[in-house]
Specification:
Blueprint lengths: L9 E5 L3 H7 L4 H10 L1 H11 L3 E8 L7 H25 L1 E6 L7 H14 L5 E9 L1 H13 L9 H5 L12 E4 L18 E4 L9 H13 L11
Length: 234
């Protein structure tokens, strides 16, 4: 089936359901987050092997600061451990790490680890792994507007020029968005970039989202007729 698939250039993921996955197994929510993070490697490897060039993972939104402090601290530690463990795997896969969002509110140790991973992987070209941290789609748009306002040389703005003020300025818009766990909303994720993205929702919790489930999403994507506002050839 893989040879018949239409392969998207960029796939974005809203990795939902870690907490419910843990609850179902009578485990702490943090164990769900850990399992979800450990799932990233197989998804990145699968994406690379079938020719996807960009993957973006919604790891921590600005709204996630509303969660209990203990859970937030656990998430920071899980992310820190992930980067320390997986940077070598990124090199092996030819993956380049990129962060979208505002890292300034994160612990200095985590900021340094992120910067280190970005530096080590910056020369890789096989696949770009974008991780959204302290990210908000609305805040990203407001940030871009404020940067334009502060630039006296800007007299007019087009969609193309506005793209240059976004975190994703060097990344093509997602062709496919996959959200796990059965929720049917965007949750303030890549609001500008998802204008013509194909959306796929599955009831599977993120820690259980494997290559088989990924292929199901790609089979559905292959069936879609992307017209971008135009007419079908039929």
């Amino acid at each position: 089936m893989k040879n018949q698939l239409k392969i998207p250039v960029h796939v974005a993921f809203i990795m939902d359901g870690n907490g419910r996955w843990a609850k179902k197994r009578f485990l702490p929510r943090t164990m769900g987050h850990k399992a979800g993070t450990e799932n990233l490697r197989s998804i990145i490897t699968y994406a690379k092997n079938i020719g996807i060039k960009h993957v973006t993972f919604y790891a921590f939104s600005t709204e996630n600061w509303k969660r209990p402090k203990d859970e937030i601290n656990a998430l920071m530690n899980i992310l820190l451990a992930y980067l320390r463990k997986e940077t070598k795997a990124f090199l092996k896969e030819g993956a380049k790490l990129n962060i979208i969002g505002d890292m300034s509110s994160f612990p200095e140790e985590l900021q340094n680890e992120v910067a280190n991973s970005i530096e080590i992987t910056k020369g890789n070209t096989t696949i770009t792994v974008n991780i959204a941290l302290n990210y908000s789609g609305r805040s990203e748009i407001v940030k871009g507007i404020n940067e334009i306002i502060s630039n006296d040389n800007v007299k007019a703005v087009t969609e193309e020029s506005f793209n240059k003020y976004l975190y994703t300025k060097d990344i093509p818009d997602p062709d496919l968005l996959i959200r796990t766990s059965g929720e049917l909303r965007l949750s303030n994720f890549l609001l500008w970039q998802l204008a013509y993205t194909e959306l796929y929702f599955t009831d599977v919790f993120w820690p259980d989202f494997n290559e088989v489930e990924f292929e199901k999403a790609l089979v559905e994507y292959t069936k879609r007729d992307r017209r971008f506002g135009g007419l079908s050839d039929d």
